[in-house]
Amino acid sequence: MKTSFLQFLQDPHLVASFQRCCGLFLRVEDCLPGNCSNSHANATGDRGPGEKGSVIRTSECTNGNQRHQINGSHQYPHGQESKDSHGVSGCVVKIVMYLGQASKDIIKWPRPLSPPVVKLETRVDAEYGMPSTHAMAATAISFTFLIATMYRYKYSVALGLMASTVLSALVSLSRLYTGMHTVLDVICGILVTAVFMVLTYPFWNIIDNFQLTSPLTPVIAIVIPFFMSYTYPALDHYSPTRGDTTIILGVASGCTIGFWMNYQYGRTYEPTGSLPFELPSVTLEIVSLAIARFLVGIIVLVATRQVVKTLTLKALYAWFNVGKHDVEARKRLEIEVPYKFVTYSSIGFNATAVVPLLHQFLELL
Q1: Could you read off the pLDDT of 153-180 as tens digits, one per residue?
Q2: Does residue 298 sit within a domain?
Q3: Which structural domain range is residue 318 located in?
C-alpha cells in the first residue's frame, strides 16, 4: 500500500495532469518516431540521468521533448541586517541546500519523463530530481525568517505564517508546472527541511553567537564550505549541480565573514528601544532610499562578479596551463570549484560588508 502510494506520487502523469490544469499541453510538432527518447542529454551533449531527445515547444505529443531557454541563477544584494536574523537564516539555508544538492547525486532519481511531462527548462536536464532544492530553499528561507523575526518585531504572526506558507507553496508548485520535479520530490524537499529546522532550532542562538563572536569564524567559513564543494559527490557525466552548490556555499561563506566583520567593528544594525520593535511606516522617502540602495548594491555586485571571475579564471588557467578560450575547462573540478567559490564568496562579502559602507558614505542609510 505504501509502495503504491509512493509510486503514485512519483508518477510523471500526475505532474502532467497538474500542468494541464494550468493550461500547459504537449502538442504534436516535429515529432517523428526515433527522434525522441526518454533519456536526458546533459550540458555537454552526453546522455545523462533522465530524458531528452529532439526538443519542441509546449506540445501534445507521444514522442517529443521541449526546448525553452531559461536563464540561470539570480543574485540578490544584502544590506545591513539585525544580529538575530542573518546568521541563523544563512546557516540553515546553506546546510539545507547542500543536503538537497548532494542528495540528488547520491539518490540518483531521474526527473519526470517527457512525454508526458512538458519540460520548460533545459539547463538542469543533467541533474537528478530527488529532492526538490527549490522547495527546500523556499521553505527554509520563508520559515527561518519568520521564526527569527516573529518575537523581534511587531506584526501579525498569523499573516507571517500565511505569507511563508504561500511563498513555499508557490515555489513548490512552480517546480511541478515547469516539469522539473515529481510530487514526491517536492514533498520530500519540504519534509527534509522541516525536520532539519525542528532538530536544529534549539541551537540557533548558539550558532548565531558563535558565528559573530568567534575569532575562528573567518577560517571556518572559508575552509569547510570550500572542502564541501571540492569533495562534492562525483558523477560519470558533467552536471551543473556541483557548480550551483559551490555558488551557494561561496555566497554563504562571504556573507558569514561580512557579518562577522560588521559585528567585530560594531557595524551590526540594531534598532533602538525594547522588544518587540515597531516596524517603520512605508513612506515615499523610505521607498526612494530602498531603490537607491538596491541599485547601488546591484552595480557593486555585478562589477564584483565580472572582475573577480575574470581574474580568478586567468590565474587558474595559467596555473593549470589551459588556453584562455577553452570554455570546457571551466567544467573541470580543479577550475570550476575555485573560480566559483572565490567569485561568489567575494560577492557575499561585498554585499554584507562593503555595500553597507558605501550606503553610509552616500548617506543612503
Answers
A1: 888 889 999 999 999 999 999 988 888 8
A2: yes
A3: 83-268+282-361
Flag whether 37 is in a domain.
no
- Answer yes or no: 134 catalytic: yes
Which residue among 78, 181, 237, 359 is the active-site one? 181
* 311: confidence class by pLDDT, cuts 50, 70, 90: very high
**Mean predicted confidence (pLDDT) in 1-29:** 77
| Joined grid coordinates for residue 268 | 551590526
Task: Note if 181 is an active site residue.
Answer: yes
State the average pLDDT over residues 187-197: 91
Domain contains 65: no
Q: Is 42 contained in some domain? A: no
* Rounded distance between C-alpha atoms, residue 201 and residue 190, angstroms: 16
CA distance 57 to 30: 10
Spatial distance between the Cα atoms of 194 and 344, rounded to a whole number of angstroms: 27
Domains held by the chain: number: 1
Task: Report CA-CA distances (Å) from 359 to 8, 77, 260, 321.
Answer: 52, 12, 19, 41
Q: How many CB atoms lie within 10 A of CB 332?
A: 14
Q: Which of 40, 78, 86, 134 is catalytic?
A: 134
